[in-house]
């Protein structure tokens, strides 16, 4: 992806001038020293990355609230960038939708490692499951949009399943090893329960129900004494 606007074409004479040796380029034909313009400051890669991240955050909220037809101009404005910057990062609506979905999956994968490093095993599992509920909410909007706009959305979703499965499998395995979770627990059962709530949701507050279900599942996963 391009991270900045391309430089304007320079006149031929100016281009040739810029290629002169330093000892000559600073003087005119009469031997008088000419004042050189300071080099043009270009946007750094970190600036471009921050722009991209802001666009993705705003786009997720916009797509979740307004669906796949959310205004891209509004997304750009709320991200603090111009439409041109948005289109340099994401040339089509489909590309932006796909990037939002992939970013959500990447956050889930990264969160598994963060929670495992900073929280006790059972709390790490709980925190990740709560984050998974948010992921389901985003997918409910993004997945149908991808189905309609992208030629083969299965490739997008199939690539994410392995990351999600590995994340919860690792967290459950760690909690079993610590003695917080019963040994016969199948990680996929936890995902099925949460996804099931989303699939049968008939009211906008289903996320609150799913979050309560996380605690019920955690309690039910404790070892039988």
Topology (SSEs and partners):
Blueprint: H1 12-18, H2 22-25, H3 45-66, H4 72-79, H5 83-89, H6 93-118, H7 121-149, H8 154-178, H9 187-199, H10 206-220
Describe the protein's architecture and organization.
With 225 residues, this protein is mainly alpha-helical. The protein has two domains: 43-91, Arc Repressor Mutant, subunit A; 93-220, Tetracycline Repressor, domain 2. Helix content is 69%, strand content 0%. The chain contains ten helices and no strands. The protein has helices at residues 12-18, 22-25, 45-66, 72-79, 83-89, 93-118, 121-149, 154-178, 187-199, 206-220. The longest helix is centred in the middle third of the chain and has 29 residues, at 121-149. The radius of gyration is 26 Å and the shape is elongated.
CATH level-1 class of the largest domain: Mainly Alpha
How many strands appear in the DSSP assignment? 0
Major sheet description: none
Structural class: mainly alpha
Beta-strand level of the residues, as a percent range?
under 5%
**Average pLDDT, to the nearest integer?**
75
Percent in helix: 55-70%
- What is the CA–CA distance across the termini? 56 Å
Order of helices and strands: HHHHHHHHHH
Shape: elongated
Given as residue ranges, the uncertain stretches (5+ residues, pLDDT < 50) are 1-35
What name does the CATH topology of the largest domain carry? Tetracycline Repressor, domain 2
Name given to the CATH architecture of the largest domain: Orthogonal Bundle
So what's the oligomer here?
Answer: single chain
Number of domains: 2
Please work out how many helical segments DSSP would assign: 10
Quick one: CATH superfamily of the largest domain? Tetracycline Repressor, domain 2
Q: Determine Rg (CA atoms, Å).
A: 26 Å
